[in-house]
């Protein structure tokens, strides 16, 4: 009977993990569709064109944004395409995404031999998105404004594969953007209702 030392056991586990990673990378690459709101009724403004402004940064500590196969900010920028309609005045709408962050924070995990057999939550993912909608007259003077923010968090276990982690973050991103939609609609109805066509 062969007894593996702790070092030997770790080497076996590391080898199995590398083999699993190699198998995963040879499979098809997952694609993630953009979140849309086309299934919802449009919000109709008495206004003219819609200007869109991307005003967020992905430079924060622990940012995952550049490494994900989908983009929170880019999807948030499409919100007015699906939800806003305009009907003919000289006023203009300006929609700005001011924050779109996905950050990761390492969590404390079990060390030693116990840690080898423990599936800890190893990372906490924080997601946040914020947007602003302004109504401007023909001279660029602001007539109305609403802001909305949504935030979500979830943890990931250390046993999750790369694709499982990406899927979990994408699912949370989808929920986050639906939260943003609900908050924007609530704010518009509460604070810009006089500019809507019902």
Outline:
By secondary structure, the protein is α/β, with parallel strands linked by helices. Helix content is 33%, strand content 29%.
What does this 3D model show about the protein?
A 4-stranded mixed sheet has the order 2-4-5-6. The protein has a two-stranded parallel sheet with strand order 1-3. The protein is an alpha/beta fold and 198 residues long. Residues 1-27 have low confidence and may be disordered. It contains 5 helices and 6 strands, in the order αββααββαββα. The chain has helices at residues 6-25, 72-77, 79-83, 112-116, 162-191; strands at residues 43-45, 50-54, 84-86, 92-106, 121-136, 142-157. It starts with 5 loop residues before the first helix and ends in a 7-residue tail after the last helix. Helices cover 33% and strands 29% of the residues. The longest helix has 30 residues, at 162-191.
Map the helices and strands.
Elements: H1 6-25, E1 43-45, E2 50-54, H2 72-77, H3 79-83, E3 84-86, E4 92-106, H4 112-116, E5 121-136, E6 142-157, H5 162-191
Parallel strand pairs: 1-3, 2-4
Antiparallel strand pairs: 4-5, 5-6
Number of separate helices: 5
| Assembly form of the protein | single chain
Distance between the termini: 80 Å
Q: Which percent range fits the helix content?
A: 25-40%
H and E order: HEEHHEEHEEH
What does the largest sheet look like?
Answer: 4 strands, mixed
Structural class designation: alpha/beta
How large is the radius of gyration? 23 Å
The coarse silhouette is elongated
Amount of beta strand = 25-35%
Mean pLDDT: 84
